[in-house]
Design goal:
The protein is α/β, with parallel strands linked by helices. It has two domains: about 180 residues, Rossmann fold, CATH 3.40.50.2000; about 150 residues, Glycogen Phosphorylase B (Rossmann fold, 3-Layer(aba) Sandwich). About 35% of the residues lie in helices and about 20% in strands. It has eleven helices and 14 strands. Strand 5, helix 3 and strand 6 form a beta-alpha-beta unit.
Length: about 350
């Protein structure tokens, strides 16, 4: 029996295992919490495919999360996972009024969400977040989408997906930030450069180390912090040692989200050397923290104040030096998009 309670079902590869888990997908956390805050009567159910590593139904800030412990296993494990997911979706559809299915990334979640939505006449939107717009995404030809089923985080991803698959996603929904997360107290800018993210090849943090090495030739006391963990850690430590930067660069490891924001607020520059980025939420967090951002990838067609786009390492070094040598440019808060604006765009898609 349908109880006519409007329900948004979100399908995601992962989700925080508890309210204390601040490092897992911080943007998704802010998004879900903001939807719940702005639309308290909306029921939100999250199906988390791979992580947390346990099968469990639990409450997270007033939202129901069902984790399936997929652990990215293939073979019969994946088949069983899909069967459990379909069974759970069917149960939700029989007891709630589903207004739509929203899934993060065009992957396994899109496969399950699109098939179930088509079978039951439900609205389905796949939100493309980054590397899923690249060439070689096996799920796109398997379940060819329509333009009005696709949202992207940035103009860059809209163009990228169209270039690679001949379909132009209809909706661009940039990520916003929650200003209430930030300490409003003005922090002294006692860190020259900060970077933050997973220590993986795509993020190119070797470039970060090389930029600091060049800057040190002119500013011997340059102070930089790299926040994050990952498989490139030992390689980066070796590169720091080779360049004699042990007193200049701190590898801070993975930190709670609140600590990351505090470090950003102390930074003059946020350096983002990633070779590919859908829309780095860390970049707009850094802008609101009062840092100047330098990156290779331009997410939006419009210019964003204090976000500098460079085309190569030499330009990155030059722009970094320019900002450090002319601090009179000023370090003011910039907020290109708020999380409330992001939620409002989503609400129009699902009419909640």
């Amino acid at each position: 029996m349908n109880n006519h309670e409007n329900t948004l079902v979100i399908l995601s590869p992962g989700f925080p295992e508890s309210e204390e888990d601040s490092t897992c997908l911080p943007l998704q956390q802010q998004l879900v919490r903001s939807i719940k805050k702005l639309y308290p009567d909306l029921i939100i159910i999250i199906l988390s495919f791979q992580y947390p590593y346990h099968k469990k139904k639990y409450e997270w800030f007033g939202v129901t999360v069902i984790s399936f412990n997929g652990r990215n296993r293939g073979g019969w494990h994946r088949l069983l996972l899909r069967q459990r997911l379909y069974a759970t979706l069917k149960k939700i559809n029989n007891t709630k009024k589903i207004i739509g299915l929203l899934n993060f990334w065009y992957g396994e979640c899109a496969l399950i969400g699109k098939k179930f939505a088509e079978r039951h006449g439900l609205k389905h939107i796949c939100w493309i977040w980054g590397q899923d717009a690249k060439k070689g995404n096996k799920y796109v030809p398997r379940i060819p989408p329509k333009a009005n089923e696709l949202a992207v985080l940035s103009d860059f991803l809209q163009n990228e997906f169209e270039k690679n698959y001949g379909i132009r996603p209809q909706y661009v929904i940039p990520p916003g930030i929650n200003s209430k997360e930030f300490n409003e107290e003005i922090k002294p800018k006692d860190i020259d450069i900060v970077a933050a993210g997973s220590l993986i090849p795509l993020k190119q943090y070797g470039i970060f180390v090389n930029v600091i090495a060049e800057i040190k030739k002119q500013i011997p006391g340059i102070k930089a912090i790299l926040i994050g963990d990952g498989p490139e850690k030992n390689k980066l430590l070796a590169l720091i040692e080779t360049n004699g930067l042990q007193s200049n660069i701190i590898l801070a490891g993975e930190r709670p989200h609140t600590e990351v924001l505090q470090m950003m607020q102390r930074a003059k520059i946020f350096l983002h050397p990633s070779s590919y980025e859908g829309f780095g939420i860390v970049c707009i967090e850094a802008l609101y923290s009062g840092a100047q951002v330098i990156s290779f990838v331009k997410p939006m067609n419009t210019e964003i104040e204090n976000w500098h786009i460079v085309t190569n390492v030499e330009e990155m070094i030059q722009k970094t030096m320019e900002i450090l040598e002319h601090p009179a440019i000023g370090f003011k808060r910039i907020i290109p998009y708020t999380i409330e604006e992001t939620v409002q765009k989503l609400s129009k898609l699902f009419s909640f």
